[in-house]
Amino acid sequence: xxxxxxxxxxxxxxxxxxxxxxxxxxxxxxxxxxxxxxxxxxxxxxxxxxxxxxxxxxxxxxxxxxxxxxxxxxxxxxxxxxxxxxxxxxxxxxxxxxxxxxxxxxxxxxxxxxxxxxxxxxxxxxxxxxxxxxxxxxxxxxxxxxxxxxxxxxxxxxxxxxxxxxxxxxxxxxxxxxxxxxxxxxxxxxxxxxxxxxxxxxxxxxxxxxxxxxxxxxxxxxxxxxxxxxxxxxxxxxxxxxxxxxxxxxxxxxxxxxxxxxxxxxxxxxxxxxxxxxxxxxxxxxxxxxxxxxxxxxxxxxxxxxxxxxxxxxxxxxxxxxxxxxxxxxxxxxxxxxxxxxxxxxxxxxxxxxxxxxxxxxxxxxxxxx
Length: 370
Known about the structure:
By secondary structure, the protein is mainly beta. The protein has two helices and 24 strands. The protein has helices at 7-11, 343-349; strands spanning 3-4, 36-45, 58-66, 79-86, 89-95, 106-114, 120-128, 140-152, 155-161, 165-168, 191-198, 205-212, 222-230, 233-242, 251-258, 261-268, 283-289, 297-298, 304-307, 316-321, 326-331, 353-354, 358-363, 366-369. The strands form four sheets. Strands 2, 3, 4, 5, 6, 7, 8, 9 and 10 form a nine-stranded mixed beta sheet that branches. The chain starts with a strand and ends with a strand. The mean pLDDT is 96.
């Protein structure tokens, strides 16, 4: 059964102090890759959700683009980057997929899982648009591909890659297949951000993804969608969580199993809440369930886990909760009171690099920053 994230839950945000992340000082932000913007990122994980230890560090996959005058233009040329993060810092390993290999016109976020022998990595990712399209479209498809992992002189390498295979397609019945939504950032519809998850209590595999409800009459019809592995193939099922009439985008949803409970987290922004309803801040949100299939309950009563501070409401975004409850994100636009309309101002304030990790503590239906 699909569990709703309701207006009543969102309205509770305004009635209590809002938990916030520490303030980011843009002057202290240092890029880990010169000349390149980096944003949504994820580590290669073990099947239990923990971060895989590879060659003395973690293999990180990050969306990347050369620095442009308008940082919002990065979404139109995004590629997935591979970096090796160790105690000595970040080492660039180039693009994950070969040039012209992915089926989309750009590559958007996903997840990656390593096998038990640490010899093969499976990448689940979003193919945005179509390869070779003359005009960029907002079509989003879920793909997967596998590569051998080798380590030479302490440096991990992935390749060659298997041909990308479409994991599962939007059906137009439960999940909207027209993803234009007007095309403006924050209004497009979703069938993206696949996050692989294995239910340790039942052994079943799932893809959790950002979706849009096909049967909705609202412009704000975001959902946390799922597909279940059945006899070697992915099968769409009804969403885990619906934000129908509440919010347009539940971005980069993912599930963490902790202390016998399931926690589903996502990121969203103030600008994508329904115009006639309660609005939450840019932040990390989530719900909790005793079984993967639900019912799911809003964390902290409202769903809000933490937000950007009021003095810097767009300082970071795209939070990902790891298996050890560490929280990673990227530095967005610290120090600005609102999103700038001037691309030059946006460029001056854009961090475009990984943020300092945070950490959560989970206790039943409560989630707090440590």
